Amino acid sequence: MKNLTTILLFLTCIITQAQQSYYDGINFNKRGVALKEELAYLITSTHTRSLSYSNVWNALKVTDLDPTNNSRVIQLYGYNKTSTGTDAYYNGKNNNGGNNGQWNREHTYPKSLGSPNLGESGPGSDAHHLRPTDVQRNSNRGNLKFVAGSGNSAKTNGGWYPGDEWKGDVARMMMYMYLRYGDRCKPSKVGVGSSSATPDDMIDLFLKWNAEDPVSELEIQRNEYMGNRSNPYAQGNRNPFIDNPYLATLIWGGPAAQNLWSFLGTDNYSMTENKINTYTNGSSIFVQSTNEVIQSVSIYTTNGQLNKVFNNTSNQKNIEIRNNNKGIHILKITGNNINETKKVIIK
């Protein structure tokens, strides 16, 4: 979803303060299944509050509020900018239930497609994939698999197309469910596409949607609420693919998605067999290269802000960068055949 009145503050390519500590333990030099496993452990271990199915109502009344009008929620799959009708974009915040004209809790990953059935607890009550949806439109979707399409949400090709405005949201929710619940929520069970080019069961359909439809303000709003354990109905964990869609590209490949983190370059890996080592001593950071000359080292904070740049005018393979603050630092190290990111800690 991308056409909200207020377009993203998030396109500035930084990590928000709320994300800073959340991802401190992740090794962003990893790729493929190795990176997937680290992120899966993170979102599972930080899922410290399990919502009851009834509490999901209360959560959605906060997470899915219209940023321009807090008396109404935004309905997944909606496209008519009104508050009435089965295709309505909005509905009254408290007009929830099971009757026509109301909104209910859409399982974007349908309960019956889980293996086993997701039920109404655990994955069945995970608010990261539950969204307000018009009752009748929810019924029209039922448990149809997601399929390729264009335009507004509709049944098509024997499945369900969520709409141009919602396909990115859906893709990132399905990626989250796969990380969080593993084989119980395989992408191939909920979408029609091929996994032949990915290292596991991720399908090309969701990778394409993730790249084509950038993160929306509403997705960010939901993620910030859910990740803050102090909120009454927050689970405590985040959806990494909302924080940075490019993580999906690093794990599964496919078309390059939007990269929202400035320190995570699109070629963030060693291009030769040259080895880069880093260590600290006091307030100094040492960077050593086994073969190639280091041209520059950019030092970022964990919220993505550039702190300093060291340009190696002496053509050295081993350099010292002095007078750094305590804490975690992200190093972007470059040279003719060097393009690496390292994380160091000054205590």
UniProtKB/TrEMBL annotation:
Q: Where is this region: Disordered?
A: 90-150
The alphabetical list of record keywords is: Endonuclease, Hydrolase, Nuclease, Signal
Single Gene Ontology MF annotation: endonuclease activity
Entries under InterPro entries matching the protein: Endonuclease-I, His-Me_finger_sf, Secre_tail
| Source superkingdom | Bacteria
Positions the record marks as coiled coil are none
SUPFAM superfamilies reported in the protein's UniProt record = His-Me finger endonucleases
- Pfam families this protein is in? Endonuclease_1
Keyword Ribonucleoprotein assigned: no
Keyword check for tRNA processing, yes or no.
no
Which residues span the membrane? none
What is the similarity comment for this entry?
Belongs to the EndA/NucM nuclease family.
Tell me what this protein is called: Endonuclease
